[in-house]
């Protein structure tokens, strides 16, 4: 089963309440809402809003997305991680998303890399103790900035509670073929982020300092199926997983839109992606009949 979710980070600069967003998401056809960590914390102050309430709206929260510290005090990092786990339990979210630090793999020497890997091991164990899964996002400027570095990180940590949030555009940005990269990372993939850009030379708009700024540029951000990164081969692979039950757990995909006119773009992207999934499923069934 493929489940599509919207991200509250898409509405980071808009005055939208969670009940309003949930009503729209359900009516539009989304399966759930990925909560940005800062939103998850502030919403604790609103009684009655939790994972159980969202389930009553026919929606789920698949993941709380935040940023665990891989440098600095280990005790403070463990405390932060446990607080984040508490948030996830409040929202009944089975996964926590983090970045693998804030420096690229080529910037770190072996000692620094080992230190960050050990820290990630420690925090993964904390998350596992709470019955949750920690997913590291494939992202530039982190230890998961290339396929090889990501695979090395996963192998070195070597814990079943650590997985990957496969951000398709960032994998493509690193020069890899997303479909081939997915085949290499498949055992660890627990979630997907979908977004796109008109031209490769515009990828800088997704730099955190620009994306999080209300005055940042949004030039080049386009709907998922309209950009320079071709999602169709990867969607074919996911449809094959679904058909063959190679990946029996639900395939969670969040549409991570950072541009303007969020409601319109997210609605259009969702309907186009669902149509693509239906077409792939119909083709697979037709081939099975012919065989």
UniProtKB/TrEMBL annotation:
<protein>
    <submittedName>
        <fullName>Xylose isomerase domain protein TIM barrel</fullName>
    </submittedName>
</protein>
<keyword id="KW-0413">Isomerase</keyword>
<dbReference type="InterPro" id="IPR036237">
    <property type="entry name" value="Xyl_isomerase-like_sf"/>
</dbReference>
<dbReference type="InterPro" id="IPR013022">
    <property type="entry name" value="Xyl_isomerase-like_TIM-brl"/>
</dbReference>
<feature type="domain" description="Xylose isomerase-like TIM barrel">
    <location>
        <begin position="24"/>
        <end position="239"/>
    </location>
</feature>
<dbReference type="InterPro" id="IPR050312">
    <property type="entry name" value="IolE/XylAMocC-like"/>
</dbReference>
<dbReference type="GO" id="GO:0016853">
    <property type="term" value="F:isomerase activity"/>
</dbReference>
<dbReference type="Pfam" id="PF01261">
    <property type="entry name" value="AP_endonuc_2"/>
</dbReference>
């Amino acid at each position: 089963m493929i489940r599509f979710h919207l991200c509250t980070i898409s509405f980071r600069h808009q005055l939208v309440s969670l009940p309003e967003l949930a009503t729209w998401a359900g009516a539009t056809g989304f399966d759930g809402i990925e909560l940005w960590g800062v939103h998850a914390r502030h919403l604790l102050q609103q009684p009655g809003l939790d994972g159980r309430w969202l389930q009553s709206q026919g929606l789920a929260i698949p993941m709380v997305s935040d940023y665990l510290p891989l440098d600095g005090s280990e005790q403070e990092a463990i405390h932060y991680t446990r607080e984040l786990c508490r948030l996830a339990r409040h929202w009944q979210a089975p996964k926590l998303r983090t970045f693998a630090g804030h420096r690229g793999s080529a910037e770190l020497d072996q000692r620094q890399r080992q230190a960050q890997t050990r820290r990630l091991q420690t925090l993964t164990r904390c998350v596992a103790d709470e019955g949750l899964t920690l997913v590291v996002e494939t992202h530039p400027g982190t230890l998961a900035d290339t396929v090889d570095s990501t695979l090395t990180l996963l192998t070195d940590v070597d814990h079943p509670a650590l997985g990957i949030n496969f951000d398709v555009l960032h994998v493509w940005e690193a020069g890899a073929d997303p479909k081939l990269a997915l085949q290499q990372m498949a055992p660890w993939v627990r979630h997907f982020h979908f977004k796109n850009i008109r031209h490769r030379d515009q990828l800088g708009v997704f730099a955190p300092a620009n994306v999080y700024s209300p005055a940042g540029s949004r030039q080049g951000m386009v709907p998922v199926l309209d950009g320079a990164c071709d999602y169709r081969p990867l969607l074919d692979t996911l449809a094959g997983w679904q058909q063959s039950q190679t990946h029996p757990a639900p395939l969670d995909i969040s549409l991570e839109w950072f541009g303007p006119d969020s409601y319109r773009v997210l609605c259009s992207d969702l309907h186009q992606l669902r149509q693509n999934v239906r077409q792939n499923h119909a083709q697979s069934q037709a081939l099975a009949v012919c065989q």
